[in-house]
Every structure is written in C-alpha cells, then in structure tokens.
Amino acid sequence: MKPNHTRNWTLLVLYFATITAANIVTAAVAPLALGPLLVPAGSFLIGATFILRDLVQNAVGRLKTYAAIGGALLLSALTSYLAGDTLWIVLASSATFVLSETADTEIYSRLKVPFALRVLYSGIVGGAVDSVVFVLIGLSPLFSGILPWEAVGYAILGQIVVKLGMQMLGAGLIAAVPAWNRSARA
Questions:
Q1: How many helices (H) and strands (E) does the chain have?
Q2: Are 163 and 47 in contact (CB under 8 A)?
Q3: How does DSSP assign 120-144, residue by residue?
Q4: How far apart are the first and last CA of the chain?
Q5: Is the pLDDT of residue 134 over 70?
Q6: Inter-CA distances, 139 with 79, 115, 133, 150, 163, Å
Q7: Cα-atom radius of gyration of the chain, to the nearest Å?
Q8: Which of 18, 127, 142, 163 is the most exposed place for a label (fewest CB within 10 A)?
Q9: Alpha carbon of 34 to those of 3, 12, 108, 135: distances in Å?
Q10: Whole-angstrom Cα distance, residue 129 to residue 167?
C-alpha cells in the first residue's frame, strides 16, 4: 500500500472507532457531574471526532469526507441502537451528527487560516451545534423528558466546555507538530 493510502485508511478507521466508542461510553457510563454541569462521558470522545474529521478531510478532500460522514452516521445510529439507547437518543444522535459534522466540514473548508486554527474554529462550532441539538432532542422535556428544563442549560454548557477543551488540546498538538502543519492543504 502507498503511504498516503495507508494514512487515509488509518484516519478513517480512527474516526469511525472514536464515534463508535463515544456512543458505547455514553450508553454505558452515567453522566459526570462537574459542579453544576452535566457531561455524558462520551463527550470527551465526541470532541476528538471533530479533530479526526478535519484530519480525514485534510487527507481525502471535502467530497470524500461527506461520504465518510454518511458511513459514520449509519455506524453511529446502529451503535446507539445496539447499545440500548431510546429511540429519541438514536434520533437525537443522528440529527446531531449530520448537523454538527456538516457545520464542522463547511467551516473548516472555508477558513483561510493556519491548519491548527481551522481545526479549532470549526470544532468549536461543530461542538456547540452537537451539544445544543443533542440535549434539546435527546434529553430535554421537548421530546424525551430525560432531563428537567432546569438541567438542560447545564447539560448543554457541560458538553460545550468539554468539547471546547478537546478542540483546544487537539489544535495545540497540531500547532506543536510542524510536519502536520506542512502537510495540511488549504
């Protein structure tokens, strides 16, 4: 196999594996209470999926990234369903995935800033969309009623804080590794 071909497949497998792991961890581990904030344990991995999605797009381009997102959407919905999540959680996860990954992809594609900043900025928006949509559809009284309205804001904020931290960590690592920045395409 050619080195780029191997790298591309490795990134894609890591992207799919992280999405699968996030769903399994979220279903299996009770949400963490960080002060008043509520954070599903899988949120740490969701933050990493945005970074991996950016790396996939950097490696294979925007069009093939959308194909990867489609495959990841099916994998995410199946994993969520098999993990025993309620129908609202599966639907919320699917809707959230499409909206947040699309937001991340389009922002990443349009920014004309250094690679690490594209990863950071697109991931911040993708993570915020992910957090708001998932909590409103999957957890709030609007549909599922898992959380009372009093906890909804704390759940959204908790996820945003964790995903922002993951984006900052990822962007910092990318900025610190010169080879990653040199190989990044605009």
A1: 7, 2
A2: yes
A3: HHHHHHHHHHHHHHHIIIIISTTTT
A4: 26
A5: yes
A6: 18, 34, 10, 12, 18
A7: 16
A8: 142
A9: 42, 32, 30, 17
A10: 14
Chain centroid, CA 47 distance in Å:
5
Rounded to two decimals, what is the model's pTM? 0.90
Give me the number of domains the chain comprises: 1
Structure tokens belonging to residue 37:
């904030």
Give the residue numbers spanning the domain of 54.
Answer: 3-183
CA 108 to chain centre: 14
**Which residues are registered as beta bridge partners of 33?**
38
Q: How many angstroms separate the CA atoms of 89 and 40, rounded?
A: 12
What element of type H or E holds 33? strand 32-34
Is the pLDDT at 163 greater than 90? The verdict is yes
For 88-117, the pLDDT digits (tens) are 999 999 999 999 999 999 999 999 999 999
In CATH, what number is assigned to the domain containing residue 147?
1.10.1760
- Backbone dihedral region for residue 128 (phi beyond 0: left; psi -120 to 50: alpha; all else: beta): alpha
What whole-number distance in Å separates Cα of residue 43 and Cα of residue 25? 9
- 141 phi, psi to nearest 5 deg: -65, -15
Mean pLDDT score of the chain, rounded to an integer?
Answer: 92
Nearest by Cα to 97 from 112, 78, 115: 78
Hunting for tokens 């992910």 — which residue is that?
A: 130
